[in-house]
Each structure stands twice: as C-alpha cells, then as structure tokens.
Amino acid sequence: MVRSGQVPAEGLVAIGIDLAAGSRSTAVCVLHGSAWDVRGSWRVAYLGIGARGTAREGVPRWDNRELTGLVREALLAGPAARVGIDSPWGWPAPFLALMGELAAPGAVGPGGELARAHDEWDARSRWRLRATDLVAAAHPGIRPMSVSTDSLGVVALRCAAILAAAGAAQVPGFRLGAAGIYEVYPAGSLASWGMRPAGSYKRDPTVRAALAQELVEAFALDEVTSEQREALAASDHALDALLAALTVAVGQLPAPEDAPAHALQRARVAGHDVPADVLEAEGWLWLPQ
C-alpha cells in the first residue's frame, strides 16, 4: 500500500508531489536512494496519479487525508526523507497588506498599499510576485506564476491546509525548507539543469517520453519499469511529480537546518533585502544548484 510505509528502514526517500486543486490531477512520485546527490543510486519506488470517486484497496486517491499522511511520515523520518511540493507556499506580503486594507475600507488612506498599488503597478510588482518569485524569474527560462492573481491560489490554499495538518507548520522556518519539505517548480528545475524539451511537455506525449528518457539517463535512475515510462509519457502531472522528487533528491539543496539562512542569503545577493519574517511568511522556491 502506498498510503504508508514509503520510508524504507535503510537509505533515503525523496517524495515529489505535483499538487493540483483536487485529487484527480495530483501526482506523487517516490524515489529511494542512498545519498542526496546523483550518486545516490535512486530508483522509482512509486509513481501514481490521484482519482476521483471511491478509493480502491491499495490505490490511493491522493486526497488531503492521504497526502497529509505521506507528508507526516516524511516528517517523522527526519533526515532520511525529503519532500518536494510543486505549489506556492505563501502569498506576497504586500498583497496580504493590500487585502487587509480592502477588508477595512475605513483604514484606506493615501499612504497605504492600495495607493501604492495604483501608483506603482506593473506586471512584476510585489503585489503579484513574492521575493522568491522575482529571484527565480531572473534565471533564463524561468517564469513563476502569480499566486495572488492567478488560479494557482487555490492550489496554494490546499497546500497550506495539508502542511498544517501534517504538522510541518509547527517547525520554525518551515516555508524555507527547515522541515525537510521544499517548495519546488518542475519547469524551473528543468531550466536550471539546462534541459530544453523540443516542444511543450505539458501538451505533447512524445515530448514527455523523450524528456523522461533524458531524465532517466542524466540521473542514472534504476529500475524504471515500462509501466512507469508509460505513465510519464501519458501525463504531465506524473512527469512533474518525478521532477519534484528529483529536485530534492539530486538538486544539491541545502540541508533542512541550513535552508532558512541559505534562502535569506540568496534573496539578499539577488538584491531583495527582505526581512526574515517576511521571507518566512512568503516561502522560498528551491531550484537545483
């Protein structure tokens, strides 16, 4: 059964979750390996997509309850497990301040966020994008979506509920990776690795099949079955789940205890001297090093 027991007695486990607004398009990939880099002899232990309707025995729907259990199991495993979730974990701080003003119209004044949004608005504004989104967007080929002004917001709400229920939110700095759970962006990981599919892997199964083979070879994945290869070609959600798992498995991400300081330093180097509490509230999007 995949709902539990995904953390092996020995070795390491990397879990990738391509989170969607509902179970039907949510995909999960579980990798087992021996080191947090490409030398870890990683293999695909599980790959599956959620479904609507009544769950069958041994076949997870990947609803909130099942995802919460999987994340909780990873938390209990400590350093032996890492999770990568493809979803924003927070909202831009200026956007939240603006929403607060709109909820209390009497407090709106000429010097508030609403006035600033009127005078300073542009497509890359801090009301639309978090500090981490702006840092990521500086990399060629990476275009993070806006959690505050796009339909992506409903996925972020689901993610927040799952992380809270699993207990991750009790770890200080959890949105910056301190709990061993990382916000990831599969398309950004591809760009960071210099992989440029010949077409859209989101729409073309032929492109997905070729990209899956490239990933298998590049990261020396062991024991990839024909069924798993078919699943990767058939669904961009499955491929994104694999990319999310690979990002935490071989992406050279900082260890959980070092991740918050690393995120703060990265933001400052990129010219975004954001207060630590603001960055912790907004979250950090981790790209492979």
Molecular structure report:
With 289 residues, this protein is of the alpha/beta class. It has a 6-stranded mixed β-sheet with strand order 3-2-1-4-5-6. 40% of the residues lie in helices and 11% in strands. The protein has helices at 64-77, 93-103, 113-120, 131-137, 153-166, 186-192, 205-218, 226-234, 236-250, 259-269, 276-282; strands at residues 12-18, 27-33, 43-49, 81-86, 181-184, 285-286. It has 2 domains: 12-88 and 132-286; 93-127, no CATH class.
Question: What's the short story on this structure?
Answer:
By secondary structure, the protein is α/β, with parallel strands linked by helices. It has helices spanning 64-77, 93-103, 113-120, 131-137, 153-166, 186-192, 205-218, 226-234, 236-250, 259-269, 276-282; strands at residues 12-18, 27-33, 43-49, 81-86, 181-184, 285-286. It has two domains: 12-88 and 132-286; 93-127, no CATH class.
